[in-house]
Automatic annotation (TrEMBL):
<keyword id="KW-0560">Oxidoreductase</keyword>
<dbReference type="GO" id="GO:0030267">
    <property type="term" value="F:glyoxylate reductase (NADPH) activity"/>
</dbReference>
<feature type="domain" description="D-isomer specific 2-hydroxyacid dehydrogenase NAD-binding">
    <location>
        <begin position="126"/>
        <end position="300"/>
    </location>
</feature>
<dbReference type="InterPro" id="IPR006139">
    <property type="entry name" value="D-isomer_2_OHA_DH_cat_dom"/>
</dbReference>
<dbReference type="GO" id="GO:0051287">
    <property type="term" value="F:NAD binding"/>
</dbReference>
<dbReference type="GO" id="GO:0016618">
    <property type="term" value="F:hydroxypyruvate reductase [NAD(P)H] activity"/>
</dbReference>
<dbReference type="InterPro" id="IPR036291">
    <property type="entry name" value="NAD(P)-bd_dom_sf"/>
</dbReference>
<comment type="similarity">
    <text>Belongs to the D-isomer specific 2-hydroxyacid dehydrogenase family.</text>
</comment>
<dbReference type="Pfam" id="PF02826">
    <property type="entry name" value="2-Hacid_dh_C"/>
</dbReference>
<dbReference type="InterPro" id="IPR050223">
    <property type="entry name" value="D-isomer_2-hydroxyacid_DH"/>
</dbReference>
<dbReference type="InterPro" id="IPR029752">
    <property type="entry name" value="D-isomer_DH_CS1"/>
</dbReference>
<protein>
    <recommendedName>
        <fullName>Glyoxylate reductase/hydroxypyruvate reductase</fullName>
    </recommendedName>
</protein>
<dbReference type="InterPro" id="IPR006140">
    <property type="entry name" value="D-isomer_DH_NAD-bd"/>
</dbReference>
<dbReference type="Pfam" id="PF00389">
    <property type="entry name" value="2-Hacid_dh"/>
</dbReference>
<feature type="domain" description="D-isomer specific 2-hydroxyacid dehydrogenase catalytic">
    <location>
        <begin position="33"/>
        <end position="332"/>
    </location>
</feature>
<dbReference type="GO" id="GO:0005829">
    <property type="term" value="C:cytosol"/>
</dbReference>
Length: 334
């Protein structure tokens, strides 16, 4: 019986590898081969397409779902068809696409990858802020002389950054904002005085106060019933007409119809979004036609280093659950 090396430094016997259902994305997209190999070193992998071709054969063997980009979708009919399923290992932090109480009722564990995505997501947040403020995308291809006034941007250094959601990602964003000598305001998840001093942040107990004072409002909250529609017409009306909204959380945190109206009317200056609802937006969606909107296709975690670490943590979580060991990053129903 041959052996396979598991990362990091764990030997997995070939015959002992459990079966895992994986997304078709691993074969359809250009992910580094070593990452899909990492899955295969630890599991007998069955793509969702393979599963659908012969569910009767595959269903009894599957002990884990390795979910990537919310795929395979955790439909109740699928989950009920997998009698040996022990864990859904989600790649990423957000688990709003998973019905935790229902999954728990089946005796199945859920895990995610907290902390792993913080730096990459904070980077894309600051990248969007800078690109929007200085109109970098619009300026590409223009000659260096006789630039139109429409390309004149806003100074980032010394401006006020309001962060809504001061968790792992929000705090990383604050660290980056400090590097630009920004004044940092934050709401939600009151941090320690030591944390505040480290990044020069000031807590706003009232979110409305943060909205009124900020030049840039950065959304970094988890999607919950409380944060769904958190930023709507009223909240946008409180922002400065020169302010920019940056969203690296989830699309449903923002009322997109209200955002379109605010951008069209000049209620706020601009929006920079790495997330929308749905993803991708329909081609005729009004957000796509506005000159003061910058949209990236949910690429916050798409760096080689972060993707690799996410896969490693998914594997660690799933193997622990399958083997009945303490699970490093279990997510339990509230």
């Amino acid at each position: 019986m041959r052996t396979v090396m598991q990362h990091p430094l764990v030997v997995v016997m070939e015959g002992d590898k459990p079966c895992a259902l994986i997304s078709d994305a691993w074969s359809e997209h250009d992910y580094p081969k070593e990452l899909s190999d990492l899955l295969k070193q630890n599991f007998h992998t069955i793509s969702y397409r393979e599963f659908l071709q012969n569910p009767v054969l595959h269903a009894p063997k599957i002990q884990a779902i390795l979910m990537w980009a919310q795929s395979p979708a955790a439909e109740p009919s699928l989950l009920r068809s997998l009698p040996s399923l022990k864990v859904i290992a989600n790649g990423g932090v957000g688990i709003d696409h998973l019905d935790l109480p229902f999954i728990a009722s089946l005796g199945v564990k859920v895990t995610n990858t907290p902390g792993v995505v913080s730096d990459a997501t904070a980077d894309i947040g600051m990248g969007l802020l800078l690109a929007s403020a200085r109109k970098i995308v619009q300026a590409v291809g223009h000659k260096t002389n006789n630039l139109p006034a429409s390309l004149m941007g806003f100074e980032v250094t010394g401006s006020t950054l309001g962060i809504i959601g001061m968790g792992h990602i929000g705090y990383k964003i604050a660290q980056r904002g400090k590097g630009f000598e920004m004044k940092i305001l934050y709401h939600n998840r009151n941090r320690s005085a030591e944390d505040e001093r480290a990044v020069g942040a000031t807590y706003c107990e009232n979110m409305d106060d943060l909205l009124r004072r900020s030049d840039f409002v950065m959304l970094a909250v988890n999607l919950t019933p409380e944060t769904t529609g958190l930023i709507g017409q009223r909240e946008l009306s409180l922002m400065k007409p020169t302010a920019t909204l940056v969203n690296v959380s989830r699309g449903l945190v923002v009322d997109q119809d209200a955002l379109v109206k605010a951008l069209q009317s000049g209620t706020i200056h601009a929006a920079a979004l790495d997330v929308t609802h749905p993803e991708p937006l329909p081609r005729d969606h009004p957000l796509l036609g506005l000159p003061n909107v910058l949209i990236t296709p949910h690429v916050g975690t798409d760096t080689y280093q972060t993707t690799r670490r996410m896969v490693e943590v998914m594997v660690e979580n799933a193997r622990a659950a399958v083997n009945g060991l303490p699970i490093p990053n279990e997510v339990k129903p509230q």
